[in-house]
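step=encode ok
step=design start
structure_in=
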């Protein structure tokens, strides 16, 4: 009954181009455009190596999710898989933790929108900008899935074209001196200020936490499986292409930025993309990039709200959330789930008002630990899923490579990231909150009415 209801009402209106850009939109947000300045201070030019390492781990996690999404393309994604292959409690925790994750991610994205607006209009309070954008994106998400897909496609296209343009322009500065009086910048900035590893391997290791936060969102491909027109064809294409594109954008963009501008002169407030062109005196490029990073934050928040609505809908289908969240409007969008998720992100407006300086770090820490829990659940469930398929001698269309070593390697890496967080004062508090949050979910599961 649950599957039939989902298939009947959640409309398959997302094409390959939508899904590609939804995943890119979720993963290329404040982590790259805003948070990368903080990461650069931790590792210097070696941050490119950190992104490469993180990208490899993300590839395996995505393939683990893809293996299940192709076999079972459902709305609610890995919460449904945890529910089916691990048990009711893991499914309950997976779904609600993912919802919590994207409420917090949405808060992080909203929290920095005011910073970008203030680049042009410094007198507008950051909380006002956050509130206006929240209302706008919420309206987009309650129209229908195709409207959401189109908005996200164009939001993400702006980001992608801007990054490509920035890389091309940066290479022109490096090689031909374009925008630098005809004097080639060269690439000596990559090693001239303390070497390629100015903070040693320690800096690279510590930076892995923020790097993994940056990649949060790629798993949206799995969430979209229930609304893909042809999931068995589109999901493998999207996963394989999204991973290398994200690596190109992160590693390529950061390499160019660090070649153009000394890493040790970069400020941690504002976007490094905007900073660089402001410092070299190209105000038109700086204004354009500020517009881009603003749309990037809107795009990532758009993706976060989309995934929240679908996850709450999936939980309602499992009877792990009130029936209220299973209501769909005439366009087939889970309107109640979207509106409630949007209401929770209003907390951002309050925190932005009370402590605008630290708000992004607060939300980033919470988002990072919840993302790690999500990814760990994906990997564990994939191991159980594969074991059941092998025992039943059922074929797999889209296999995760290097199974099971790839899954165990990624799980060990995620444990390492949690250990690193314990040594970072700004991240440590989230390790205290996570056990309390998981305990609350356990209690909620025990108290929920049994079917």
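sequence_out=
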């Amino acid at each position: 009954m649950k599957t039939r209801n989902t298939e009947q009402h959640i409309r398959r209106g997302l094409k390959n181009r939508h899904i590609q850009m939804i995943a890119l939109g979720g993963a290329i947000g404040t982590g790259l455009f805003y948070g990368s300045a903080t990461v650069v201070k931790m590792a210097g030019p070696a941050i490119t190596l950190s992104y490469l390492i993180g990208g490899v781990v993300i590839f395996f996690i995505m393939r683990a999710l893809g293996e299940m999404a192709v076999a079972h393309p459902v709305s609610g994604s890995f919460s449904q898989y945890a529910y089916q292959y691990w048990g009711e409690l893991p499914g309950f925790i997976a779904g609600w933790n993912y919802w919590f994750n994207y409420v917090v991610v949405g808060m992080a994205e909203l929290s920095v929108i005011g910073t970008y607006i203030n680049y042009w209009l410094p007198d507008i309070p950051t909380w006002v900008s956050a509130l206006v954008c929240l209302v706008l994106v919420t309206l987009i998400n309650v129209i229908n899935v195709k409207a959401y897909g189109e908005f996200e496609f164009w939001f993400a296209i702006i980001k992608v074209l801007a990054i490509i343009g920035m890389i091309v322009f940066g290479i022109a500065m490096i090689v031909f001196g374009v925008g630098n009086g005809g004097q080639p910048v060269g690439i000596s900035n990559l090693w001239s200020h303390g070497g390629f590893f100015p903070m040693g391997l320690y800096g690279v290791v510590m930076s892995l936490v923020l790097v993994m936060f940056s990649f949060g969102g790629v798993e949206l491909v799995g969430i979209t499986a229930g609304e893909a027109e042809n999931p068995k064809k589109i999901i493998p294409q999207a996963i394989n292409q999204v991973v290398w594109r994200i690596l190109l954008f992160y590693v390529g963009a950061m390499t160019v930025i660090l070649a153009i501008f000394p890493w040790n002169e970069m400020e941690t407030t504002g976007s490094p993309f905007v900073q660089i062109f402001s410092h070299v005196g190209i105000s038109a490029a700086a204004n354009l990039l500020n517009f881009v990073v603003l749309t990037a934050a809107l795009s990532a928040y758009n993706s976060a709200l989309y995934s929240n609505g679908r996850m709450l809908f999936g939980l309602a289908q499992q009877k792990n959330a009130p029936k209220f969240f299973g209501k769909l409007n005439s366009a087939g969008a889970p309107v109640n789930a979207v509106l409630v998720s949007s209401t929770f992100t209003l907390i951002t407006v309050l925190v932005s008002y009370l402590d605008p300086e630290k708000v992004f770090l607060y939300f980033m820490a919470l988002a990072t630990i919840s993302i790690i829990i999500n990814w760990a659940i994906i990997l564990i469930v994939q191991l159980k899923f594969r074991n059941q398929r092998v025992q039943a001698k059922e074929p797999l269309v889209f296999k995760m490579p290097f199974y099971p070593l790839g899954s165990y390697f990624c799980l060990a890496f995620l444990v390492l990231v949690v250990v690193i967080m314990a040594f970072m004062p700004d991240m440590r508090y989230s390790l205290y909150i996570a056990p309390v949050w998981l305990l609350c979910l356990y209690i909620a599961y025990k108290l929920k009415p049994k079917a």
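step=design ok
step=annotate ok -> The CA atoms of residues 85 and 384 lie 6 Å apart.
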